[in-house]
Amino acid sequence: AWDDERFSFSAKKSSFPFHGNLIEIISDPNMDVLKINPSFFKDSISYYRKNSAYDVNVNDFKYQISTKKADTLYVPFDPSTATTLRFLENEIKRPVYIGIKSDINNEDYKSLFDVSEEVYKSLLQESNNQVAESLLLMISGTLEWDFNTETGIEHVNNKNRDLAAGISQVDGSGLSRYNLITSKVLVEVLN
Fold it and tell me: What per-residue string of b and e applies to 70-103 under the rule 16 or more CB within 10 Å gives b?
């Protein structure tokens, strides 16, 4: 819903999410400053102190966070290509390039395959629909560099043809009322 756009559970999906596409803002009653994570966003967030709270301006929305006790606020940001590239360049201290898949030799680049166990463990311990949606986009991007949810779902179904008959999936989210799964499929996955 439009009214939910400013809340953490409405972080936008993207093909390369970082920090869950959320900005963490922390207040500390012992210090008169806010801590911003990732610090990359520090210069783009303004705030001022009132009596009992800071007024924080992010993404054209105004939030309040306590000055009296430790408090944490999670604010979604727009994960544009430009923002993602600037963030990556800032973190790895090297330029990042956008290219056409057919023009790039994949052997020259590192992948993120070695972190898959950590990602899946995180998803199983705490349901995170934004990460699940982003993984579907990444799957489709790996195939064609076309970040498309339907392509990701089709690829997953093709890889798991035996299970696909008992699954109706329209998106990566566990919240959609249109995603359906039979108990037989759940038992087969667990086995």
Answer: ebebebbbebeeebbeebeeeeeeeeeeeeeeee
